Structure formats: structure tokens, C-alpha cells
């Protein structure tokens, strides 16, 4: 009977071990899966990623990186191109003549001003010059065309062509702006922030307003805050561009051994790792693994390649690491908060929208859970063994 009681005790212990619930992976599990393919892990459709230990150097590199979503990634930046006249534009053509007996001069005036609108076929009629092609020409080219047409008719003519309205040069600005409208462009070229200002400006804070630029079949989206802080992103717009402003508060997800997990809003212009954890009321002292703070992110390819190195990056691609729809790669940043300088490093590491911060639990937590779960069954088993021993006497 004693052997039966001992066997019962072993069964209860094993059952208790299997019943320990899981609250996400331990730090060792994350480190162990890093850089492993599905074949190596014995699982199908595995998301291949790597873990990067964050120190002062890597934190500074990630913080200093400037993403050029419009100017570089989509290749639609650069200065304004050649400004030309278009269909529907309003022009003032002023013609001067040297003599009082000219076609356009009188005793009182040696000039005449004509208001014209470029017609759908790109032309407009000028007296004595006939039909003149304006569309596709600069103001100077239009001036020369009129002069050439009047050369043998007017008395030493001279011409000035002035733009009065640029109906062909408009940009659509809509969404979270003060006055959604068609914004006319001037001849010197205007940037994104300038046309947004013409449309009444943004109605929400720059740190939660996204700007989408549509040009032909290309689209680029960037945070308005980034355009303001990085002038290279404030690119010149072109006629026919569409600009949409959308309020989309930046959020991150906080999980694991924290006092308040969930999806949280930034609520500020910037947010670092320490501030993000603080928004969840900090880690649970008796449960959190100070050496296992992780940040999961789809990161810019330039950052990933720099942190991992070309050889490691190519190896992970061969193993199945793939980019998301925006060309970013999965990466996991690891923070060891047991070191004093982690409080400095954590202040310099920026949080991005849609980041997932996971605070892993300490391995001792599972041991405590196990002991709690099997404590009561062990007492029952001990009582059963004692009863069996008494019966055997």
C-alpha cells in the first residue's frame, strides 16, 4: 500500500507540472527562437526574426536614424520642376509699341493689356497674332511666341506675359485640415507644409496626424511631426497631387509582467522606453525579469542591416525572414534593466507607433506557480499515504 501511495504522489506532481499556465514566453524562449527557421524549430510558417541587445551605441543609432518616407523611399522628392502654362490658366498679355500709329497704340497710350484664358486645346487668340499655343510653355516662351507672331505687323513690339490664375496648377488637400480645398500653386513652387497652411492648417496635433501624398500611382505616408522636424521630408508638391491628412493617435501595446497592460496612446510628441513602461504603471517587482525587457517591431531595412550586419541579414532572409508591406523587417530589441546605465539607455530609445513592449516574467514565477498548484494535491497525497500505511499495520 505504501508503494501505491508513492505512485499516487508522483502522478499528482506530474499533473501539477503540466497544469502550470503560461503568460507569454520566458526570456530564454525568445532568445532561443531568434534567428531560427521553421525547420530548425520544428514548426511551420514561423516568423523569422533576430534579437538585438540594446546598449548606448545601438540605442543612439536607432534614435538618430531619420526615415525619409517621401523624399527617399518613394522617390518623389526634389525641387520644383519647370513651371509651364496649362489649360484654364488666366494670363494678362501686355503689348507695347514704339510708334503712335501702331496696331495697339493710340495718341494717349502705346500699350494694350489683354486678359486671356487658355482654352482646352492649349491655345488662346491674340489680335493680329492669331491663335497662339500657350499650354506647355513657360511665361518667357509664351512671350517669345507672341513677339514672333507680331514681328512683321506691329511697330517694334514688346510683350509682357503675366500669370493671373493657375487653374491648371492645383493640389487637392483634404481630411483633417481647416478648409479642405483645391489649393492653387504659385510659380515659384510650394512645399507640403505650405499648401496645408493654405488649406487652413491641420486640426490635430502634428504628433498624431499622418500626411499621405498621392502622385499618379505612387503613395507615401509620413507623420506630420516628421515633416516639421526634418525639412528634407517637406518636399515640393506638383500639380495634380492629392494630400490627405488623417488623425491617427500613435499607440503601442504593453504586455507581460506589468501592472497595467494593454494598448496605450502616446499622448505626447515623443515617447521613450522608460516612459512607455511607466504608462503601464511599471513592471511587477516580484514577477518581472529585469534582464528580459523586449520590444517587438517591424523596423526600417537600413537599421536592421546595420545592426545585424550584411552577412547575418542575408542568412536570415535565406531562412525565411520577410518584410511587411512597407518593406520593414521584424526585429526584437532586448533591454537588460538590471544594469544602472539602462536608465540612461531607456531614455534615449524612441518608441514608434504599433510597437509591442513585452516584459518577460522571471523563471521563479513558474516555480512558485507550480508549488502553489501542487501544494494542495501533495497534502491530499500525503494523507492518502498515511492512511494506506495505517491500514497496512
Automatic annotation (TrEMBL):
It holds the Pfam family SLBB. The keyword Glycoprotein does not apply. The keyword Thylakoid does not apply. Residues 171-221 form the Soluble ligand binding domain. Residues 1-22 form the signal peptide. GO terms for molecular function: polysaccharide transmembrane transporter activity. InterPro entries: Poly_export, Poly_export_N, Soluble_ligand-bd. Residues 83-162 form the Polysaccharide export protein N-terminal domain. Keywords: Signal. It comes from the Bacteria. This is Polysaccharide export outer membrane protein. It comes from Rhizobium paranaense.
Amino acid at each position: 500500500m505504501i508503494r501505491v501511495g508513492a505512485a499516487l504522489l508522483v502522478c499528482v506532481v506530474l499533473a501539477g507540472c503540466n497544469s502550470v499556465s503560461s503568460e507569454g514566453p520566458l526570456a530564454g524562449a525568445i532568445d532561443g527562437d531568434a534567428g531560427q527557421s521553421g525547420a530548425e524549430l520544428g514548426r511551420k510558417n514561423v516568423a523569422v526574426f533576430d534579437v538585438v541587445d540594446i546598449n548606448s551605441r545601438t540605442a543612439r543609432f536607432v534614435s538618430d536614424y531619420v526615415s525619409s518616407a517621401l523624399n527617399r523611399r518613394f522617390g518623389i522628392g526634389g525641387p520644383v520642376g519647370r513651371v509651364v502654362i496649362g489649360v484654364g490658366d488666366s494670363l494678362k498679355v501686355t503689348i507695347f509699341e514704339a510708334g503712335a500709329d501702331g496696331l495697339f497704340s493710340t495718341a494717349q497710350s502705346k500699350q494694350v493689356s489683354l486678359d486671356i484664358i487658355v482654352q482646352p486645346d492649349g491655345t488662346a487668340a491674340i489680335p493680329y497674332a492669331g491663335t497662339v499655343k500657350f499650354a506647355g510653355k513657360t511665361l518667357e516662351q509664351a512671350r517669345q511666341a507672341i513677339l514672333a507672331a507680331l514681328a512683321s505687323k506691329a511697330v517694334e513690339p514688346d510683350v509682357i506675359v503675366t500669370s493671373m490664375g493657375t487653374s491648371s496648377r492645383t493640389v487637392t488637400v483634404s481630411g483633417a485640415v481647416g478648409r479642405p480645398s483645391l489649393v492653387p500653386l504659385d510659380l515659384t513652387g510650394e512645399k507640403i507644409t505650405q499648401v496645408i497652411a493654405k488649406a487652413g492648417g491641420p486640426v490635430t496635433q502634428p504628433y498624431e496626424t499622418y500626411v499621405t501624398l498621392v502622385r499618379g500611382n505612387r503613395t507615401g505616408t509620413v507623420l506630420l511631426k516628421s515633416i516639421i522636424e526634418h525639412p528634407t521630408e517637406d518636399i515640393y508638391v506638383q500639380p495634380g497631387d492629392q494630400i490627405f491628412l488623417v488623425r491617427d493617435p500613435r499607440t503601442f501595446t504593453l504586455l507581460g509582467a506589468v501592472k497595467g497592460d494593454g494598448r496605450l496612446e502616446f499622448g505626447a510628441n515623443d515617447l521613450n522606453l522608460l516612459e512607455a513602461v511607466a504608462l503601464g504603471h511599471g513592471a511587477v517587482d516580484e514577477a518581472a525579469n529585469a534582464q528580459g525587457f523586449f520590444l517587438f517591431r517591424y523596423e526600417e531595412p537600413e537599421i536592421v542591416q546595420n545592426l545585424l550586419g550584411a552577412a547575418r541579414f542575408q542568412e536570415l532572409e535565406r531562412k525565411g525572414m520577410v518584410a511587411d508591406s512597407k518593406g520593414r523587417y521584424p526585429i526584437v530589441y532586448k533591454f537588460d534593466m538590471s544594469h544602472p546605465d539602462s536608465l540612461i539607455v531607456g531614455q534615449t530609445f524612441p518608441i514608434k507607433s504599433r510597437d509591442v513592449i513585452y516584459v518577460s516574467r522571471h523563471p521563479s514565477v513558474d516555480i512558485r506557480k507550480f508549488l502553489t498548484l501542487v501544494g494542495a494535491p501533495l497534502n491530499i497525497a500525503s494523507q492518502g499515504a498515511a492512511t494506506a500505511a495505517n491500514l497496512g499495520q
